[in-house]
Amino acid sequence: MRVEFVAFPKAFAGNVAVLVAADKQLLATAQALDGETGKAVTRAIGASRFTGAKNQTLTVLGQSGDIARLMLLGIGKPAELDARTCESLGGLVCADANAAGQKAATVVVDAPKGSTLSAGVIAAHVALGAQLRSYRFDKYKTKQKPEQKPSLARLTIAVADPAEAKAAYAEVEPTIDAVFLARDLVSEPPNVLYPAEFAQRARALTKLGVKVEILGEAEMKKLGMGALLGVGQGSVRESQLVIMRWMNGRKTQKPIALIGKGVCFDTGGISIKPAGGMEDMKWDMAGAGAVYGAMHLLAGRKARANVIGICAIVENMPDGNAQRPGDVVTTMSGQTVEVINTDAEGRLILCDAMWYVQEKYKPQAMVELSTLTGAIIVALGHERAGLFSNDTLLSNKLRAAGAMVGEKLWRMPLGPKYDKLIDSEIADMRNVGGGRDGGSITAAQFLQRFVQDGVAWAHLDIAGMAWSGKGDNTTPKGATAFGVRLLDRLVEDNYEK
Ligand code: BES
Ligand code: MN
Ligand code: ZN
């Protein structure tokens, strides 16, 4: 979809959206159109429940001159208008135009009196939201009829200062590619996206100036990554460790490490999962997808920071050579793990990736993302990812970044009594707690045993957020790329100078 920013034309035509603030306050263009049409806008509002509340819309058909469809976009109270709401409105315009089979749409962005956002910034985020909503993963559909394909090809944003809007859009535009690439990875079927293929796609970041290094099983064996290798042992696909370095910050800045769980397919291994819904486990690499997307975005906008992305990429399969429940593996840290349940594989690959990045790059902070536990979905549903951390400052930074981009987090507890639940009779720890109780917390406790002194660490359990069954205003159903924008924003707001 093409986006353009233009100055206000003399007259509007076609498929047009205008802004209305809370309590039916028509912004300038809505008001002018209302006057020109003998109060058609006011009448339409009067015949509906539309008040201009945030994210409310009302589409008026065939009312005025050359305007075939007039969409009213509720912005709520101008003083409370934020970038996220603008994105959401852009997404609504995109969806509405596609549903109506429209090829083009115009959004008129009048400056709302009392808003802290300039019209240019509003315009840029409306465009961003429309783009994010326009994502499709239809490469395997060979029989789509024209009416099944999205129709909206051109979005025009009319704004008083198009140059300002263009500049604001240029700042957010790298987000689109990064989010789309991450969604692509997560959407790909598991026969296509296996570990080496993931690594291959990550290698493309080299073009943006990211240093990409890929370790195979022989190298990981030398490093002593027994836990990671144990998970991949039953797969015919070679496990990979993908290390992406974007070092564009001050020489003296200790890097931020971003770590992702990349299980390209999780059958559960010998502790095999039930058949129903098992296909979902193709997106068990969404944490790695988010880290990859974030690295793409940081490099795409040339962030002034030192960031290392590290993804542990494996396939968890049952096989004659697969690891067994009861096996004891030695992690790179030297600590041993009794593998009670081969389906608790995420923590086994992450612990070696975490140890590696700490040993090699001495990061000041380490943020790891994983679709780690079904239990976090029981706790938080599909509204927030679970946040576990040893550092309140880092937790607050993450929560603030998430709030800005609409990727919400909820802090969960850690503590010695939970930690005790993963003690083993024959090894240093077991990979699951005694029962299902507190399953997300015991998983996090396991990871915390691999955090070195002085490192600020956060684990985001994104199992409920990686895939959306119903979609939202800026995300179609399917892969969300949750985490890409959050990580980028975390770096932008805290580690760039
Ligand atoms: N990848 C799953 C977690 C998951 C479940 C993500 C559902 C998304 C949706 C993870 O590897 C797993 O299997 N976890 C087990 C842990 C258990 C064996 C302690 C779980 O949650 O059941
Ligand atoms: Mn599993
Ligand atoms: Zn898994």
Structure description:
The protein has helices at 28-36, 40-46, 83-99, 119-133, 162-172, 174-187, 195-203, 217-223, 226-232, 286-300, 346-361, 375-380, 392-405, 416-420, 439-448, 484-494; strands at residues 2-6, 14-21, 25-26, 57-64, 67-76, 104-109, 154-159, 211-215, 240-247, 256-266, 306-316, 328-330, 336-338, 365-370, 385-389, 409-411, 429-430, 456-461, 467-468, 478-479. With 497 residues, it is an alpha/beta fold. Helix 3 crosses helix 4 and helix 13 (392-405) packs across helix 16. The protein has an eight-stranded mixed sheet, with helices on both faces. Strands 1, 2, 3, 4, 5, 6 and 7 form a seven-stranded mixed sheet that branches. Strands 12-13-17 form a three-stranded mixed sheet. The chain has 16 helices and 20 strands.
What is shown here, in short?
The protein has 497 residues and is of the alpha/beta class. The protein has helices spanning 28-36, 40-46, 83-99, 119-133, 162-172, 174-187, 195-203, 217-223, 226-232, 286-300, 346-361, 375-380, 392-405, 416-420, 439-448, 484-494, and strands at 2-6, 14-21, 25-26, 57-64, 67-76, 104-109, 154-159, 211-215, 240-247, 256-266, 306-316, 328-330, 336-338, 365-370, 385-389, 409-411, 429-430, 456-461, 467-468, 478-479. It has two domains: 2-161, Leucine Aminopeptidase, subunit E, domain 1 (3-Layer(aba) Sandwich); 175-494, Zn peptidases (Aminopeptidase, 3-Layer(aba) Sandwich).
Structural topology:
Blueprint: E1 2-6, E2 14-21, E3 25-26, H1 28-36, H2 40-46, E4 57-64, E5 67-76, H3 83-99, E6 104-109, H4 119-133, E7 154-159, H5 162-172, H6 174-187, H7 195-203, E8 211-215, H8 217-223, H9 226-232, E9 240-247, E10 256-266, H10 286-300, E11 306-316, E12 328-330, E13 336-338, H11 346-361, E14 365-370, H12 375-380, E15 385-389, H13 392-405, E16 409-411, H14 416-420, E17 429-430, H15 439-448, E18 456-461, E19 467-468, E20 478-479, H16 484-494
Helix pairs in contact: 3-4, 4-5, 6-10, 9-11, 10-16, 13-16
The structure holds ligand BES, manganese (II) ion (MN) and zinc ion.
Manganese (II) ion binds next to loops.
